[in-house]
Amino acid sequence: MEKEYYYLDEKEQKGPFSIEQLKTVGLKPDTLVWTEDFENWKPVREVEELKVLLKKTPPPPPIVDNSPSSTNENENEKEKETKVLVEDSNVKFWASFKIYSFSFLLIGAAVLGAFLISNNKKKELKNEIYSRIDKILDGKTVILDGTYSLTQGELEETGYNSKSKSKNDNSLESLFKPWWEREKLYTIFKALYGGFTIKMLTKRYPDGYDIETITSGDMGYKKPASRYVQPEYWDGYKISGGYYSDNYRLPVRQCYTQAYEFFTKEDRQSPGSYTPGKFVDITNFPDIRNNYFYMSNREPIQYTSSGQFSSNWYTSDEHGANINTEDWAVYHSLSGRHYVITENNEAINKDLIAYLAISIGPIILILIIVGLSKPKYFRNLILFGKRWKNISYHDQIFFFEHSFFGKHQFTEIINDKVLKGLLKFTDKGNTINLSYPNKELFYKLVKIDKDNLSLISMKDKSEISFIRIGAAEKKQENTEIITNNEVIDNEETNQ
Fold it and tell me: What φ, ψ does residue 82 adopt, rounded to 5°?
């Protein structure tokens, strides 16, 4: 009876097999075998009758699984298959270009989004400023309001008399006269405190506003406190006159009241501008602000009809302007400031940086995570777009097609037979999975460079080497020698 042997395939016992059957198994020198004559398992190299099998061991199998599959083989035979001609392409460049372009596109979209958010917030906050100003103006261009209190001061006779009147008032000397003499006042009232204050807010252009403050000062009477009544005679007798009589002059308080009413009730400055209750709003107008905008006291940024082109203006002489009648004059001073709605660039830029960090940060984090999770991604791109020839099985050629968004595909050509399947990377890019219609194969990536590819089968730990078709001439010659020898060995084994 012919001997029967058992062998271990990765700790799995297989058999029994005859020596003739073992020829097709592909034993290796270290493969453990056992037969009934052995006390223990022995490696093939120590079994004399099996050593001859080592010489006939076929070379490492091709990357395809050659296990029998009669159904699929019959189906493949029924189909007329033609050899696929493929050309090399620079997949790494284009894939890298797509990745970087996509990354820049995402970052650009994030930056654009941050700017849009910042601009929308800026627009909202500026509209908020406009709304607060419109609430103060009540749809008007000019509003004014004032406060009034009892004026306290002292009356003083100026000494202005007929002698003063006789002087040449048209001479240059009149410019250097005291204000009361220049204004021809008999009595002046020197105000110490009290009086009235007028606040006027004027809109000059969309973002420019004037605030003018009118403050009362001294006053004066244009006629003396008394007048001399000429005597009248009849037949040599004085029947009347010959004495000083008081002139009727409006009380000081009423003079200030009428002057105040000139700006308010009479509304002489701008008809319809008097708006009671706005004094505090006008006073606090310069304090209007939010996170992005504030009122800045500065020069007008465009032409205004006010005639003022500075940030501040005022009357140089406190007795230069007045409200007057035939009998009296109330003097006042005027000061003005121009305000412009101004951006708070520091706050705007700070928020913009925060928005950029919020929008770009996650994208950069994702790219970092992807880069860490797939450290071999760019290295493995070398695999694609090239024709790889199996050094051990000369007639086998692989072409791997890269897909940026979809699944990677591969084309296997063995003589005139063409198979297609899907390619996946696992183990952080260290292992490839080839999915055929009827099977799946796993291989460890050992080496990938421009011209060489080495894989280790996860099934039997055999190493399979490929060379790029079109590699350097010297490499091609060596490959041809190795391939021819292995093909011969394959033929002998098959025989």
Answer: -120, 155
